[in-house]
Design brief:
By secondary structure, the protein is of the alpha/beta class. It has two domains: about 150 residues, Rossmann fold; about 100 residues, Glutamyl-tRNA Synthetase, domain 3, CATH 3.90.800.10. Helix content is about 30%, strand content about 15%. The chain is built from ten helices and twelve strands. The strands form five sheets. The chain has a three-stranded parallel β-sheet with strand order 1-2-3, covered by helices on one side. Strand 6 and strand 7 form a beta hairpin. The longest helix is centred in the N-terminal third of the chain and has 15 residues. It is elongated. The structure holds glutamic acid (GLU).
């Protein structure tokens, strides 16, 4: 297929959603993505995934915070909102090839539908996959605009993950364009990673189960799926995934408590086994020490209240 431009230099990336400030968990993932990319002589790219959930000025704040902990990238910063025509072209081409269908289902209808025979649990039940023209016209008249789903020709796909090994997960008829016309994350991420020459994806392990769908779609589009490293999350003191509700967890909050970005970097490095507690480090030193084989595989429980000097 013709969707994918010739590969540019191999690259890794960090792709935050500019919905607010980054917290220490996001910064640690960014640091890891930077270490994986730079230690393998890849470019490191920053992409703002701003197709939804954006907050005014959040991109600039995230850029400032990455800089403050010493994560740099190869410009320019790419904004997904500037690339809408590329996603639209891919959806159109897939549609013209008969690889998509319109889906009128609500979330509730999907949950309530009996699952299709042999379909993995949680897979789209196929309700709109084979509508007749008349049925489709009737649904359209009901006024609910359709989402666009890809017609999957498999139920599972295997990816290679540097921390999880060969990981096999579900592929179903997933949404590639939402019913408000916005490209779906699973489409945009694949189109962009291919277009930017990204062959190494390091991100939080909450996205591990999305990787098989994305890698399968990359293959369908004629691209080589990236190698993944889904890294452990950061948890709060209750063992729950860190969020901004957990108090002082952004660089801004921590600075107000007297904890500098350099101190945050030291704690992140210690949590990765790259420094001793309270050792002063800079990113180049971490790069020299970085060894993916000895990375901790367990989540990091954050206790920033212990960091105040
Ligand atoms: N934008 C996504 C997020 O912030 C990450 C996407 C990815 O790394 O593939 O959760």
């Amino acid at each position: 297929m013709s969707f994918v431009p010739p590969p540019s230099s191999p690259a890794g990336r960090f792709a935050p959603s500019p919905s607010g400030e980054l917290h220490v968990g996001n910064l640690r993932t960014a640091l890891l993505a930077w270490l994986f990319a730079r230690s393998t002589d890849r470019l490191f790219l920053l992409r703002m995934e701003d197709l939804d959930r954006t907050a005014v000025g959040a991109d600039a704040g995230q850029i400032a915070d990455l800089t403050a902990v010493g994560v740099d990238w190869d410009p320019p910063v790419v904004y997904q909102s500037h690339r809408l025509e590329h996603y639209r072209d891919v959806v159109t081409e897939l549609r013209d090839e008969g690889r998509t269908f319109e889906c009128f289902c609500t979330r509730r209808e999907i949950l309530d539908a009996p699952s299709a025979p042999h379909a993995p649990q949680g897979a789209y039940p196929g309700t709109c996959r084979d509508l007749t023209d008349a049925q489709r016209a009737e649904r359209r008249e009901s006024g609910r605009p359709p989402a666009v789903r890809i017609r999957a020709d498999t139920t599972a796909f295997t990816v290679t993950d540097l921390l999880h090994g060969e990981y096999t997960g579900m592929v179903d008829d997933f949404v590639i364009q939402r019913n408000d016309g916005t490209p779906a994350y699973n489409l945009a991420v694949v189109v962009d990673d291919a277009a930017q020459g990204i062959d190494q994806v390091v991100r939080g392990d909450d996205l591990l189960s999305s990787a098989p769908r994305q890698a399968w779609l990359a293959t369908l589009l004629g691209a080589t799926p990236p190698v993944y490293a889904h890294v452990p999350m950061v948890l709060n003191g209750n063992g729950i995934r860190l969020s901004k509700r957990d108090g002082a967890v952004t660089l801004g909050d921590l600075s107000a408590d007297g904890v500098s970005p350099t101190t945050v970097l030291s704690h992140m490095a210690a949590s990765l086994g790259l420094a001793t507690r309270d050792e002063y480090v800079d990113p180049d030193l971490l790069l020299r020490r970085f060894d993916p084989d000895v990375l901790p595989r367990d989540p990091w429980v954050l206790t920033p209240e212990e960091w105040v000097e």
